[in-house]
Write a structure and sequence with these properties.
The complex is a heterodimer of chains A (195) and B (177). Chain A has 195 residues and is an alpha/beta fold. Chain A contains 8 helices and 8 strands, in the order H-E-H-E-H-E-H-H-E-E-E-H-E-H-E-H. In chain A, the strands form 2 sheets. In chain A, strands 2-1-3-4-8-7 form a 6-stranded parallel β-sheet, sandwiched between helices. Chain A has a two-stranded antiparallel ribbon with strand order 5-6. Chain B is of the alpha/beta class and 177 residues long. Chain B contains 7 helices and 6 strands. Chain B has helices at 14-23, 38-46, 58-70, 91-97, 119-131, 142-159, 169-172; strands spanning 26-31, 51-54, 74-80, 101-106, 135-139, 162-167. In chain B, helix 2 (38-46) links the parallel strand 1 and strand 2 (51-54). Classes of the chains: A alpha/beta (195), B alpha/beta (177). The interface between A and B is medium-sized, with 35 and 33 residues.
Chain lengths: 195, 177
């Protein structure tokens, strides 16, 4: 069984300068923060179902950047329609990574649809995503990392993980601060490039 | 996707809305289609500088335009009043982070409505926006619609607030069946 926190740490290790990450509410936000609390992370603490669509808006605004949305199966299921929207727009610089524990972990671990019948990678493919990949074991992670960081989007990776509760790593919760930190980092990066 | 050349008919007041959006440098337009927005949607597609995104449900548009703003682009969402209720929890993203946001809403469920199923959301639209922290404008003339769109863009992107411009059913014309 793949450990979610180690897996996200591996995906984000030595992350490229142009990588922008949006994390879905709950454990994905803690996992992303634990891997490195940097200004190029936008942490969601709510807006359930909106992470992928938010990634699309950002990816369209910043074709020079790679946008990676890291979210959970419950959050992705709530925004299932946005996979159709992403497929139709086909942004080459957008990747979705679903940490799939097949459960609603924040609310008592109730089995989610991915623990029953839904295959999110297959849904994404059917919506027109260019490529998808699922990691079931540690050895599959390198392929998923390559997919979500480098391959032409839209792509969707799934990491099948356990439902163990890990210590919470809580980044900034004030949305105004998160937004300003992120935008300032983008502006500084742009200024740096134009010098 | 840029489509063929488009021009508004001489009596189409949506030309004024489009001009206001261009003047305010809108670069992303997200929409759930409505007949009342049809010519405006066509004009946006025909414009080389506006990226258009068709949504499966309106709440996607709220998140999408928040993402666009993070990346430095201005946006607008076009929808019908029946879609406003779909957005309610997603509006918390705007308030929680101070995102600017502008939506133009064609109204149903009011002036001369034929379909009773449009009434509940149509009648609750303005109150829903206000309770979600929006500034709400209501346009009954084409002239107002254009002026209010320009003002909404300035209010949103200069003063960081969400703004809704309601295009009244009297202005659009009640749908005939």
């Amino acid at each position: 069984m793949i450990g979610r926190r180690d897996a996200i740490a591996e995906i984000l290790m030595d992350r490229p300068d142009n990588l922008l990450v949006i994390s879905g509410l709950g454990s994905p936000t803690y996992d992303v923060a634990a891997a490195g609390d940097v200004a190029q992370n936008f942490y969601l603490w709510g807006a359930m179902g909106g992470a992928a669509a938010m990634g699309l808006g950002l990816a369209q605004a910043r074709p020079d950047a790679r946008v990676l949305v890291i979210t959970g199966d419950g959050e992705m299921l709530m925004g299932l329609g946005s996979l159709a929207t992403l497929g139709a727009k086909a942004p080459a610089n957008l990747a979705i990574l679903v940490i799939d524990n097949e459960a609603f972990g924040e609310t008592g671990g109730q089995t989610s649809h991915t623990g029953k019948t839904t295959n999110l990678a297959a849904v994404a493919l059917a919506c027109g995503f260019r490529q998808v990949a699922t990691a079931y074991k540690q050895a599959d992670l390198a392929g998923v990392k390559q997919l979500v960081l480098e391959d032409a989007g839209p792509v969707l990776g799934v990491i099948k993980t356990g439902s163990d509760e890990l210590p919470r790593v809580l980044p900034e919760r004030d949305g105004h601060i998160i937004r300003n930190t992120f935008k300032t980092a983008l502006a500084n990066q742009q200024n740096g490039e134009s010098k | 996707m840029k489509t063929q050349h488009f021009s508004f008919t001489a009596d189409d007041w949506r030309a004024g809305i489009f001009a206001a959006l261009k003047k305010q440098q809108v670069q992303q337009m997200a929409y759930v289609p409505d007949a009342g927005h049809a010519s405006l949607i066509s004009a946006c597609y025909a414009d080389g500088d506006i990226g258009c995104t068709v949504l499966t449900t309106e709440e996607e548009g709220v998140a999408l335009l928040a993402g666009a703003e993070l990346g430095g682009q201005r946006g607008v969402m076009l929808m019908q009043s029946s879609g406003v209720g779909n957005c309610v929890n997603m509006f918390s993203l705007l308030k929680s982070c101070g995102f600017p946001f502008v939506t133009l809403v064609t109204m149903r469920g009011e002036w001369g409505e034929f379909n009773p199923w449009q009434m509940p959301m149509g009648q609750a639209t303005e109150e829903t926006f206000r309770r979600s922290g929006f500034v709400v404008y209501r346009a009954d003339t084409g002239e107002d619609a254009a002026a209010m769109t320009g003002s909404a863009m300035r209010l949103a992107y200069d003063s960081n607030c969400p703004v809704a411009v309601l295009l009244s059913q009297r202005l659009i014309g009640a749908k005939d069946f």
